[in-house]
Amino acid sequence: MKVAAIDIGTNSMRLLMTEYVDGKFFDRQKYINTTRIGQDVDKEGFISKEAINRNINALDEFVNTARNKNCKFIFAMGTSALRDSKNKSEFLEKAYSKTGVNVEIISGYDEANLGFLGVLQGIEEEGDILVIDIGGGSTEFIVGNKEEGIKFSKSENVGALRMTEKFLKSDPVDDCEFKKLEEYVKTTINNTLDNIKNFNIKKAVGIGGTITSLSAISQCLEVYSMDKIHNSLLSNQEIENILQNLKKLSVEKKKNIKGLQPKRADIITAGAGILNIIIKELKFEDMTISEFDNLEGLICQKLKIMS
């Protein structure tokens, strides 16, 4: 059976189309569009008219693509920016009117759970793992394993777009501004990291656009490849080196970095900064990157409910 899942994230919208047979994924295809629904939501509290229109058009395009590929079901979810916006109902009504697809706004807790569920589809690890998902508006932390499921889950309002808008006004990045970002992130996630330290974690797994981009940069990928990203390793030293390089470059120069989508150039430094703090504080030497994430998790969850 062919199915599709759409994730309307703070920074980008993503589409997964896949064959789903006996609980397994085949012929996965992913598409991304940097739609920035969360632009200024943190500051203004509202999604702008431009962002609404931009995202509804992108959603319509993805829905049509899925229908043209004969997807039997199309599931859609909205995350951090839609959760936080005061005019989310306007977006949901317009989205349904244009596409006929219901967009479900999920909580930070549910977002974390779906990310974990997705990761489990593409990993063999038996012991406890920590899944880290750095999005545009929030970062999700999930600890658990295949046997017992989720043991700890938390969503924190630190994301690559949100932190860039809040702190990084200079180009290239100003050291004082970056220090303020680091202090804010550390203070915000400190309790969560303390909780995570109580678990005997065998492996850290990273998902989401920031982390997959850092892996692509590390590998100098001319063309993004899910196969090359999935199960790749990113060491704490590589993360630190990439971050220090990003801080020196202007946004225009970042657009030329191999492996980095040009539309992510203005927010990647903040995203790398968030990850660097997490990895250092938790003393991980490296992390595994997963190309199975909350999109796969959404399909698993929805089809299980329907069966």
UniProtKB/TrEMBL annotation:
GO molecular function, one term: pyrophosphatase activity
Domain of life assignment: Bacteria
One Pfam entry name: Ppx-GppA
InterPro entries given in the database record: ATPase_NBD, GppA/Ppx_hydrolase, Ppx_GppA_N
Domain Ppx/GppA phosphatase N-terminal: 29-303
PANTHER family xrefs: EXOPOLYPHOSPHATASE (PTHR30005), RETROGRADE REGULATION PROTEIN 2 (PTHR30005:SF0)
Protein family per UniProt: Belongs to the GppA/Ppx family.
Protein name as annotated: Exopolyphosphatase / guanosine-5'-triphosphate,3'-diphosphate pyrophosphatase
Organism: Tepidibacter formicigenes DSM 15518
Organismal lineage: Bacteria, Bacillati, Bacillota, Clostridia, Peptostreptococcales
